[in-house]
Design a protein that fits this description.
D-Amino Acid Oxidase, Chain A, domain 2; FAD/NAD(P)-binding domain; elongated; binds flavin-adenine dinucleotide; 27% helix; 2 domains; 7 helices; 8-stranded mixed β-sheet
């Protein structure tokens, strides 16, 4: 038997769940099918909301700033629905200079909203970073606790009557006569006028897609160290430090090793070295956790969003690369409007798969 719905969503990471909620809120019946694959990125990420620090093109940066600024409202709504307050840090992100010349370079490129801190300002703000020549503070950036966020999304989806969620692996999709159909490993069949592809690093590997998507896995390892020597998310020494509760996350490696999701000694050592170069005392800090996740990366490190040009019943919400926690709630809201036939602001076009001429 084939079951029908308004919107089928393949993948239950941040992209799939936020899009499911956005579609359901606009009155659509949604089915989410998720395989819960090891290494899926949304629960493994560092949670930074860093549009000012990530090297984005001007157009993409303006969308990313909007995505960041949507977060307080998005989390307030999620808390109303679930009772789960998701920690949001909007203290700003520090970009640490390694040398005086580097500091001058960072200061000369800083946006008007950023604050340039010399060595004394920096030591006053973050005593543990004393000794570095300075930093730029990107005042409105920050981080979200993405693990709590994913837990809240799980609860919100479970409570939403218009959403059915299934634990299964989609093995094949097809697009006959203006419809989308999916078949799962558990031999279930579904059809809908729209299907959202939100399968993260696995986006290219689903059988039946009309094109081979340029999305590949890029492994990132993270450490969680005991103690909290700083209050600000800090980009430093080729990596970053992210306060999380009473601990410090240190990230991240970037390794093209396919779908291998293990941690390695080399990765752990590289992260320890980033931490220690930023704050010498971290050489002694206890490692509480060491894990890895798979970023779904495109050639320009921007997501693929919106309908396929030849098969419009297939809608992409994938390839979020290094900024999926930041961008997914914004993308979901735009896709929700599109699915419901409401006006969008046109920004989705920036992320069309046509830019790769695939
Ligand atoms: C180490 C690391 C640090 C990061 N730090 C940040 C950060 O600080 N800030 C930021 O914004 N982003 C960060 N990211 C990136 C961010 O995590 C991703 O861009 C985002 O989580 C992608 O979400 P997604 O829903 O597209 O994919 P995923 O979270 O990977 O979800 C995809 C889902 O699809 C399911 N799936 C796949 N194939 C099938 C199938 N055939 N059938 C059914 N289900 C299927 C998988 O099981 C999975 O649940 C980081 C990523 C990593 C790995």
């Amino acid at each position: 038997m084939t079951r029908s719905t308004d919107v089928l969503i393949v993948g239950g990471g941040i992209a799939g769940l936020t899009t499911a909620l956005a579609a359901a809120r606009r009155g659509l019946a949604v089915t989410v099918i998720d395989a819960t694959r090891p290494g899926a990125a949304s629960r493994e990420a560092a949670g930074m909301l860093a549009p000012s620090v990530e090297g984005l093109s001007l157009d993409a940066k303006s969308v990313a700033v909007r995505a960041r600024d949507l977060y307080p409202e998005f989390l307030a709504d999620l808390c109303d629905r679930t009772g789960i307050p998701v920690p949001l840090d909007r203290n700003g992100i520090l970009q640490l200079a390694e040398t005086r010349v580097h500091w001058e370079e960072l200061a000369s490129q800083a946006a008007l909203t950023a604050l340039c801190l010399d060595d004394r300002d920096l030591a006053r703000l973050e005593p543990a970073l004393a000794g570095h020549p300075g930093a730029v503070l990107h005042r409105f950036d920050g981080a979200v606790d993405n693990v709590t966020l994913m837990r809240a999304l799980d609860v919100a989806v479970e409570r939403e009557q218009r959403i059915d969620r299934l634990q299964d692996t989609v093995v094949r999709v097809a697009f006959p006569r203006g419809m989308a159909t999916v078949t799962t490993a558990g031999a279930s069949r579904f059809e809908a006028p729209r299907m959202i592809l939100a399968t993260g690093a696995w986006a290219a590997s689903l059988s039946g897609l009309p094109t081979r998507l340029p999305v590949r896995p890029l492994r990132g390892q993270l450490l969680r160290l005991d103690g909290l020597p700083i209050r600000h998310v800090t980009y430093a020494c080729g990596g970053y430090l992210v306060p999380r509760g009473e601990t410090l996350l240190v990230g991240a490696t970037s390794e093209a090793v396919g779908f291998a999701n293990e941690t390695t000694h080399e990765g752990g050592n590289a992260l320890r070295s980033i931490a220690t170069r930023a704050i010498a005392a971290l050489s002694e800090a206890k490692v509480i956790e060491h894990w890895a996740g798979l970023r779904p990366v495109t050639p320009d490190e921007l997501p693929i969003l919106g309908p396929d040009p030849d098969v419009p019943q297939l809608v992409y919400a994938c390839g979020f690369s290094r900024n999926g926690i930041l961008l997914a709630p914004w993308a979901a809201s735009e896709l929700g409007d599109m699915l419901a036939g409401e006006r969008t602001d046109g920004s989705l076009a920036l992320f069309s798969c046509q830019r790769f001429s695939i």
